[in-house]
Design a protein that fits this description.
Largest sheet: 12 strands, mixed
Strand order of the largest sheet: 9-3-8-10-11-13-12-17-18-16-15-14
Number of helices: 9
Helix content: 10-25%
Distance between the termini: 6 Å
Structural class: alpha+beta
């Protein structure tokens, strides 16, 4: 998704998060919010994909309904700078049918108002202003100790959790940040633990419109973004050439053909943990070689697109290409 109004900084999503979130650390003392706890059942037989995908298309998962309910509540309370549902979207004519969003309210001038939209700092630790910014924190996700996933209506923020925070300058419906909280050594490295939790978010939301995006950090911040797109994005229409095929119950690694950016596709219909481990190792190797990259998680967590960026080029977010 691209915004047609010219701006000086192409890395729009990264700048939004940097200015709104301020820093990756956050003081959770005194804050109680809804906690979504992942179940442990899939850890036994690695049945995560099959365990969630049995739901019919008419059913809505608990995590999907939680995210949309919380996001829409903030929308009606006026926490966003504009109504994203009123933004005009057009399909750019051509073979790939890229999408363009006309949003005159989305400008860099609004991001400079740090007093209103930036979370306050005390001794380099991010804290939520109780009167307003606590409302921007929707809920958090963590690993539970029960077999099935569950929702705790109100509890203190645990360690090794993912904070779900609204983007007050949304690109698309349901636009949120997924920010790691109290993960050890997660400044610039996307480790397998956090990546596994993020992919599992897509699996348990179980909504094909939901996609997650990651920009390889250049400002020592690791976080994902997510939003809902009603239609397939251009890269998802492209044909692929299989590089590695581990069979029906394994993972598949392909290269996307005829796309402007060199792109790899990691896919699996059942072997969740192996796919995440291979993807995390690939990302680590790219980081060691100083090769920037972007990720897009789609198809309810079954597909992860890895976009390779040339060293030295401007860092362009995945959304701008899709």
């Amino acid at each position: 998704m691209v915004t047609v109004k010219p701006i000086a900084d192409n890395n729009l999503l990264l700048r939004c998060a940097t200015e709104q979130l301020g820093c990756p650390h956050f003081c959770s003392q005194g804050i109680k919010i809804p906690i979504y706890c992942f179940g442990t059942k899939y850890l036994i037989d690695n049945s995560l994909f099959g365990g969630v995908s049995h739901m019919s298309e008419e059913e809505q998962s608990l995590l999907d309904s939680l995210l949309l309910a919380q996001w829409e509540e903030r929308m009606w309370k006026g926490h966003f700078k504009y109504d994203i549902t009123a933004s005009e979207i057009k399909v750019i004519r051509g073979r790939r049918k890229f999408l363009a969003q006309l949003n005159s309210d989305r400008s860099m001038d609004g991001l400079q108002d740090l007093k209103k939209h930036k979370m306050c700092h005390q001794e380099d630790v991010l804290v939520f202003e109780q009167t307003k910014h606590c409302e921007e924190l929707l809920f958090c996700i963590t690993n539970g100790d029960k077999a099935d996933s569950e929702l705790i209506p109100s509890a203190a923020v645990p360690n090794d959790a993912i904070l779900i925070v609204i983007n007050v300058n949304p690109i698309e419906y349901g636009h949120v940040f997924l920010v790691p909280h109290a993960f050890d050594r997660l400044d610039q490295v996307l480790d397998a633990r956090f990546l596994e939790m993020v992919v599992r978010v897509a699996v348990e939301i179980n909504n094909c419109s939901f996609r997650l995006f990651y920009n390889c950090p250049r400002h020592s911040r690791v976080y994902f973004q997510a939003c809902y797109f009603p239609d397939l994005l251009p890269v998802e229409h492209m044909p692929v050439d299989i590089l590695f095929d581990a069979g029906q119950k394994g993972i598949h690694i392909s290269t996307v053909i005829d796309y402007p950016i060199k792109t790899l596709l990691f896919a699996s219909n059942c072997n969740f943990k192996i796919m995440v481990e291979v993807l995390a190792e690939t990302c680590s190797c790219l980081l060691d070689k100083d090769i920037p990259y972007n990720l897009m998680i789609s198809d309810c967590g079954k597909k992860v697109f890895l976009f390779l960026q040339r060293t030295g080029e401007k860092h362009i977010c995945t959304c701008a290409h899709t």
